[in-house]
Design goal:
The structure holds three protein chains of three kinds.
Chain A (H helix, E strand, L loop, with lengths): L7 E4 L13 E5 L9 H5 L5 E3 L5 E3 L9 H5 L5 E5 L4
Antiparallel strand pairs in A: 2-5, 3-4
Chain B lengths: L24 H13 L3 E6 L2 H4 L6 E2 L5 E4 L4 H15 L4 E6 L1 H6 L2 H10 L3 E7 L34 H6 L5 E6 L3 H13 L3 E7 L3 H4 L6 H10 L6 E4 L2 E4 L16 H4 L10 H25 L3
Parallel strand pairs in B: 1-3, 1-4, 4-5, 5-7, 6-7
Antiparallel strand pairs in B: 6-8, 8-9
Helix pairs in contact in B: 1-7, 3-5
Chain C lengths: L6 E6 H11 L4 E4 L6 H12 L6 E4 L3 H13 L4 E5 L1 H6 L1 H9 L4 E7 L13 H4 L7 E4 L3 H18 L3 E6 L7 E6 L2 H7 L18 E2 L6 H33 L7 E4 L6 E5 L4 H13 L4 E6 L1 E3 L3 H5 L6 E6 L8 H10 L4 E5 L9 H13 L4 E3 L1
Parallel strand pairs in C: 2-3, 2-4, 4-5, 5-7, 6-7, 11-12, 11-14, 14-15, 15-16
Antiparallel strand pairs in C: 1-8, 6-13, 10-12
Helix pairs in contact in C: 1-2, 1-7, 3-5, 7-9, 10-13
The chains are: A alpha+beta, B alpha/beta, C alpha/beta.
């Protein structure tokens, strides 16, 4: 990428800061109940769930805002939202 | 044909740690846009939540080329990008990602002109049904009855049907979509990008702080909007109109879920009386009738 | 060197601008009609339709969109052009600042016209001067030939300084008046104006994620950017002179850079003015010289960047009479700009020719004489 004469931005994690600190509830996955469907990955608005078919999911807690969409949408209820205060 | 989830691209076009609110519906849409068109699109984004969610420079929370532009200008700027690419021989798609305010209100003249010119632009209006970036003020896309900070007792006027207005411009492709149905949205973006000319997608994108619901319910709220018939999924592709699933099986209103299942999830409708809800149901019925008649009239096949 | 044919022809100011734009080989043109600008873009759309100019001509619904279209095109690497007047220019206002803030190398013709109410299509300079702080370079022609020359030069300035350039020409007085013009051969224009670098002010290409204009993490990033626009204008002062000289070598027409000097040798008094009526002012200066009044003239070819140094060179003179074809609640705009360089004591500001009212050589002569002999600071004629 070349020079620019105007301030420009390039993609990087954390453009809004360490957004994991916003979280009051933490999504915790029970991988035994996970059926590897990818629904949570698809709906996660933050792109903090990594998924490849056959490898199950991994959540990036540095940036996860704890919205809980993954837990709500999980068809097997494999994700539970646990209060951060209790952790 | 719905694309299988595991075949969708895994590259991240929405970067973790951006400035969107928790549970932002619009970000699900941006993710899908990236999956469908991330390597081809150049985005024009007018003043909106979408300008803020990118986060703070020199970082960007969206991994696509973006020109942030004045509020009313996006359709015209995208036209310029599209014409420049054509003249310079650059392979690329000019895409507008704009909110309902930037589209249906302040930017509407430019949107209408781009449609009338049939400029080669894919215009996606993510609709969170109010001016959310400035703190939940009414837009022409706010539904009747909904609370906003400038309609404290509920909006008295009906929602403007932008997609139908765009359809009436005679453009080759118009669709509605919802973040609850990402594969449908993915397919529509892919399809639209194959067509030369002006393409418009009205994307329903719930807003947890603006609609007053828990952020875990964003997809649920969007899904209920479709299942109750409040938001209808349809597509107009080069003269052919069709309803998309699940709306296609909801023409018979008995098959729709009761509207309260959608309304009760959201604080913005908490003040509505039973009579008002009954009226809303009637208006939704009317909207279906109107759409189907309009669709019949608009179809060339 | 092969002798290249110069075409001598007769054109209106607007058609001269259209020919200059065509010879600059733009990729994208967008405009909304407004009198007295309209015939520029009519002619350009004709060139495009007839296949004489390979460019996109985009019809838009407003001047705001006209500038937005050429802005998008310029940011994507295209050479682009628009034109407007008066209310159309004001309807562009937000985009004007955004374009300059994006360092978009756009060229725009501004055919000057008074601002309503009442509706009036005649000449005045309030419109083009009102955008003087937006970050655009602003030039003003005094003849049809110069309207052509400045338009060609504007593309070079825009694409070297990364500052959008407005080229002004007086409504009707130049825009619709036929004068003889020399059009340089296309080869000469091509040599003077090579294709622009599509990767500056930034490279906007699919698959290369870069964002322009999101919020800064530190307001100092924004502040530095604003200072850089100021610096670009300072740099543009040098570029205007270089470009004028280079163009002069190729075409035989060099104007003097930011200003044109006339009869300033041995002068005790100077007239400062801008635009087409400087022709009448020059007649007045000649006549006053014949009467024995030691007066010369400095014509502002650019008001942004402002020719501070050139104006400052007049500081030894007894009086400087600044003519404004514009008015604000604080007086004439150029009068105040010149006074900010020379001090108020030296400057007599004459506001005249408002709303298109004729102001001819004889009136200039009387006004200059009155200004020199009298004690007034501001004369409203």
């Amino acid at each position: 990428m070349g020079l620019a004469l105007v301030p420009v931005s390039r993609p990087a994690p954390g453009s809004g800061g360490l957004t994991g600190t916003w979280r009051t509830l933490r999504p915790v996955v029970n991988l035994d109940k996970c059926i590897d469907c990818g629904i949570c990955w698809l709906y996660c608005p933050e792109s903090v769930i990594d998924w490849e078919k056959g490898q199950k999911i991994k959540i990036d807690y540095t940036y996860c805002k704890g919205c809980g969409i993954c837990a709500h949408e999980c068809p097997t209820k494999a994700i539970e939202m646990i209060p951060e205060a209790g952790l | 044909m719905s694309v299988r989830i595991d075949l969708l691209p895994k590259k991240k076009y929405v970067m973790p740690g951006n400035s969107a609110c928790a549970g932002c519906g619009m970000m699900i849409g941006l993710k899908i846009l990236g999956m469908a068109l991330g390597e081809e699109a150049v985005l024009s984004i007018p003043a909106s939540c979408a300008s803020v969610v990118q986060g703070l420079g020199p970082k960007s929370g969206i991994a696509m080329p973006i020109l942030n532009v004045p509020f009313a200008s996006a359709a015209s700027v995208a036209t310029g990008i599209s014409e420049a690419f054509k003249q310079l021989g650059v392979n690329g798609k000019a895409v507008v990602w704009a909110g309902d305010g930037g589209t249906a209100d302040i930017g509407f003249a430019a949107v209408s002109a781009a449609a009338e010119r049939n400029s080669d632009v894919l215009y996606i209006m993510y609709d969170n049904e109010a001016y959310m970036n400035t703190g939940i003020q009414r837009s022409s896309e706010t539904p009747k009855g909904a609370w906003t900070t400038t309609t404290p007792t509920g909006k008295r006027e009906a929602k403007k049907d932008v997609a139908l207005i765009l359809l009436a411009h005679g453009v080759p492709y118009v669709a509605t979509a919802s973040i609850a149905y990402p594969q449908d949205l993915y397919r529509k973006i892919k399809r639209a990008s194959e067509i030369r000319g002006f393409k418009f997608i009205h994307l329903f994108a719930p807003c947890p702080p603006g609609w007053l619901f828990d952020p875990s319910l964003t997809v649920e709220v969007a899904r209920k909007a479709v299942e109750t018939g409040a938001f209808i999924l349809w597509e107009y592709d080069n003269g052919e109109f069709k309803l998309n699933p699940p709306s296609s099986s909801l023409v018979d209103k008995k098959r729709r879920k009761p509207l309260t299942e959608y309304l009760k999830l959201q604080g913005r409708f908490a003040h509505l009386t039973e009579e008002q809800i009954r009226q809303m149901e009637e208006e939704i019925d009317h909207k279906w009738e109107f759409l189907l008649k309009f669709a019949q009239a608009a179809s060339r096949r | 060197m092969r002798a290249l044919a110069v075409l001598k022809t007769a054109l209106t100011g607007n058609y001269a601008v259209a020919h200059a734009v065509k010879m600059a080989r733009p990729h994208v043109i967008a405009a909304y009609p407004i009198t007295p600008q309209t015939t520029i873009v009519e002619k350009l759309s004709e060139f495009v339709e007839r296949g004489e100019l390979k460019a996109s001509f985009v019809n838009v619904e407003s001047e705001f969109s006209a500038l937005a279209v050429v802005y998008g095109a310029a940011m994507a690497g295209a050479r682009s052009f628009t034109a407007t007047s008066s209310h159309g220019l004001f309807y562009m206002y937000e985009m004007l600042w955004w374009a300059a803030g994006s360092r978009a190398p756009i060229v725009m013709a501004v055919v000057t016209r008074t601002i309503g109410p009442p509706w009036n299509i005649h000449d005045e300079h309030n419109d083009i001067l009102a955008i003087r702080d937006s970050g655009w370079a602003i030039a003003m022609a005094s003849s049809v030939q110069e309207a052509f020359d400045l338009t060609v030069q504007a593309f070079k300035l825009a694409e070297r300084a990364y500052v959008p350039v407005a080229v002004g020409l007086d409504g009707f007085v130049l825009s619709h008046t036929v004068e003889t013009v020399e059009l340089p051969p296309q080869e000469v224009v091509d040599k003077f104006l090579p294709p622009r670098n599509p990767d500056l002010p930034l490279r906007l290409r699919p698959g290369e994620p870069i964002a322009m204009g999101n919020l800064p993490s530190d307001d100092r990033i924004h502040a530095e950017h604003l200072k850089n626009i100021y610096k670009a204008h300072q740099e543009a002062k040098k570029l205007v002179k270089e470009i004028d000289s280079e163009y002069g070598e190729l075409t035989g027409r060099e104007y003097g850079g930011l200003v044109e000097r006339f009869e300033l040798e041995g002068a005790k008094y100077a007239v400062i003015c801008m635009g087409a009526w400087c022709g009448d002012a020059k007649e007045a200066v000649k006549s006053l010289r014949r009467e024995g009044v030691p007066v010369g003239l400095m014509r502002l070819r650019f008001v942004r960047p402002f020719p501070d140094e050139e104006v400052e060179a007049l500081s030894d003179l007894d009086k400087v009479v600044v003519f404004d074809r514009d008015i604000t609640p604080a007086g004439g705009i150029l009068g105040r700009e010149v006074a900010s360089v020379l001090g108020r004591d030296k400057v007599v500001n004459v506001v005249a020719g408002l709303a298109g009212v004729d102001f001819k050589a004889e009136e200039f002569r009387k006004a200059v004489k009155h200004a020199i002999e009298g004690e007034e600071r501001l004369m409203l004629l």
